[in-house]
Amino acid sequence: MAKKSMIEREKKRERLVKQYADKRAALKAIIEDKEKPVEERFKASLKLAELPRNSSPTRLHNRCQLTGRPHAYYRKLKLSRIMLRNLGQNGEIPGMVKSSW
Fold first, then answer.
1. What is the chain written as a DSSP string?
2. Model-level pTM?
3. How far is it, in rounded angstroms, from Cα 101 to Cα 93?
4. Which of 2, 17, 44, 51 could, after both became Cys, cross-link 30 (CB 3.0–4.6 A)?
5. Which InterPro entries match (predicted)?
6. Does the structure show a pLDDT above 90 at 3?
7. Are 6 and 73 in contact (CB under 8 A)?
């Protein structure tokens, strides 16, 4: 299981991404707009740089919902490979059976 501090840090990042999403989108729209004067776009880029780094969605990392494991993550199920195997063997995931041949 992942450290509690890492799981909490990831939750904090998710909160910050939601909190600043609109502000970041507005500033990025100003920066991308070639019709605006260069000074205004530059000021918008400086304001974007002043926002917290953890408010950027690229800093988010997928983690297993049960264990917090960051690697071998299945997006569709939001589980790591280890928990997927355990739950599949116990019959807790519908339609998944242990293979045998």
1. ---HHHHHHHHHHHHHHHHHHHHHHHHHHHHH-TTS-HHHHHHHHHHHHHS-GGGSGGG-----TTT---SSEETTTTEEHHHHHHHHHTT-STT------
2. 0.76
3. 21
4. 44
5. Ribosomal_uS14, Ribosomal_uS14_bac/plastid, Ribosomal_uS14_CS
6. no
7. no
